Amino acid sequence: MTENSSSDPGSSSTSTTGKKKSRTTTRRRHNPEGQMPLKAHLTELRNRIIKAGLALVAGTIVGFILYQPTFTMITEPVSRLDTAEHPAEVVFSSVAQPFDIMLQVALFTGVVISSPIWLYQLWAFIMPGLKKNEKIYTLGFLAAAIPLFIGGVVLGWVALPQALSFFTSLTPEGTAHRIQATVYIPFVLRLLLVFGVALVLPVILVGLNMAGVISGKQILKQWRISVIVIAVVAAMAAPGSDVITMFFMGLPLTILFFVALVICLVNDKRRVKRQTKKQRQLDEEIQRGARPLGEL
Question: What does pTM read for this prediction?
């Protein structure tokens, strides 16, 4: 009697683990699409924001450490404009301005450094219902989004000297360029950030297509309007508000839009094939009739 009533800790642990797996399997069976109620979505959003925020804080700390070389690099295009005819320099007009600029530069550096983490958190929130065989899409998103974001920042950096050269060429002789740091630094940081985010938007468009929010055919029908929107966004978002920055932003964004469109159309075809295959299998099971309980 004593031996029968005694319980083995190992078997109890195995039983508990088996129950947890059974409950997880049951939830997946009843919710194959990974749908969540509104409260769960809000909780998921909060968790993603916290993780992205912690990564941003860590990156900003690194930004404070790298502030001096970063500031020197940002002001280097102005130094190139410094000539005997037209002296050029970045100046501070108040005591507190250097600290304000340090905060802005450190925060921008943190955004760039932490981009792999907050981009992943963004993707994980958009696509919470991915199946195991679709997890490879996450690697594809990161492999595309991270280089595009950094590439956008680099592209903005390439466009910056061109824009500065254009504007300063209009300066009358005998005058100097004493640019306020509170004007120049935010201008540069905004330019680089807008370029980086703009190049990630087509990847997010593909993510929305994979989530079933929008189809490739819907995008194709509105491609003319989309191109116009890209031109308007490039004109409004480019801090320079000139043709050069609009061109540097609008051209790659248009190319990436059409690449994203092709990917969405291909993904739609794959989705239709999968649905057709599932429907065919279901029809075959219906034709075979109900199976005995022992075979279920």
Answer: 0.68
